[in-house]
UniProtKB/TrEMBL annotation:
UniProt keyword annotations, A-Z: DNA-binding, Transcription, Transcription regulation
Protein's UniProt keywords contain Transcription regulation: yes
The HTH tetR-type domain, residue ranges: 14-74
Organism this protein belongs to: Anaeromyxobacter dehalogenans (strain ATCC BAA-258 / DSM 21875 / 2CP-1)
Protein name: Transcriptional regulator, TetR family
Highest taxon, organism lineage: Bacteria
GO molecular function: DNA-binding transcription factor activity; transcription cis-regulatory region binding
Gene3D superfamilies, alphabetized: Homeodomain-like (1.10.10.60), Tetracycline Repressor, domain 2 (1.10.357.10)
DNA-binding region residue numbers: 37-56
Length: 208
C-alpha cells in the first residue's frame, strides 16, 4: 500500500471532524466565542466530548479551524479565478473583488467575525486568525498582481501592499456597517457597485 494511503485519515474520521466543525460553527454564530461551551458544541454536533477532544485539543483550536475552513474555500475560489490568465485586468479584478466582498458579507462570515471579537481578547487567537485568513489572502492576491505587473499591466513597487490596498478598497464601508449591525443586508447590486468603485480607484493608482 502506498505511503500516502497509510497516512491518509479514514473517511469516517474526516466525516466526524466535519460534523464537529458544522456543529461548532452554528454554536459560535449563535453564542459568540466566549459564551460557546464545549458541552453545547458536542451536543449540537452529535458527538461525545471525548470524540470532540480527539479532533480538537480545545475550544480555540476548534474556532480557528472553523475560520480557516471558510478562508480556505475563498482562497481556492480566488486561485481558480486568477488561474484564468486575461489581459482584461478590470474585469478580472471586478470578479475577484465581488468574490471577496460577497464572502465577507455572507451571514456566516459576519457571525464568525462578531464571534471573533471575543477571541481577540486572547492575542494568540487573533494572530492565528490573521495569519491563516487575511495574510494568506493578501499573499495570493499579491502573487496575481505581480504576474499582471510582469506583463506590463500594473506598476507596482510593493505587490503585497497593493494587495492590501485592493482588499481594503473592496471592503468600502459596507462591510463595517454590516458587521456593526447598521446595515442588515447588502444586495448583489451593492456589492457590484462597491467593487466597481474600488477597482476604478485601484487602477488609477497602479495602472501604468
Amino acid at each position: 500500500m502506498a505511503e500516502n494511503q497509510l497516512q491518509r485519515p479514514p473517511d469516517w474520521c474526516v466525516g466526524k471532524r466535519q460534523q464537529i466543525l458544522d456543529g461548532a460553527r452554528k454554536v459560535f454564530q449563535e453564542h459568540g466565542y466566549e459564551r460557546a461551551s464545549v458541552d453545547v458544541i458536542a451536543a449540537r454536533s452529535g458527538v461525545s466530548k471525548a470524540t470532540l477532544y480527539n479532533h480538537f485539543h480545545d475550544k480555540s483550536a476548534l474556532f480557528v479551524a472553523c475560520f480557516e475552513q471558510g478562508s480556505n474555500q475563498m482562497q481556492a475560489d480566488l486561485e481558480a479565478l486568477f488561474a484564468e490568465t486575461s489581459d482584461d485586468l478590470e474585469s478580472a479584478l471586478q470578479a475577484a473583488g465581488e468574490r471577496l466582498l460577497g464572502k465577507f458579507l455572507s451571514s456566516e462570515a459576519v457571525a464568525l467575525y462578531r464571534s471573533a471579537l471575543d477571541g481577540f481578547r486572547l492575542p494568540d487567537i487573533g494572530k492565528m486568525l490573521y495569519e491563516r485568513g487575511p495574510r494568506v489572502t493578501h499573499e495570493l492576491i499579491a502573487a496575481a498582481l505581480s504576474r499582471w505587473a510582469a506583463r506590463g499591466l500594473l506598476r507596482l513597487d510593493d505587490p503585497y501592499y497593493a494587495a492590501v490596498q485592493f482588499v481594503n478598497l473592496c471592503h468600502g464601508d459596507v462591510m463595517m456597517r454590516l458587521h456593526l449591525g447598521v446595515l442588515q443586508e447588502a444586495s448583489p447590486d451593492d456589492v457590484r457597485a462597491t467593487v466597481r468603485r474600488a477597482v476604478q480607484t485601484f487602477l488609477r493608482a497602479f495602472r501604468p
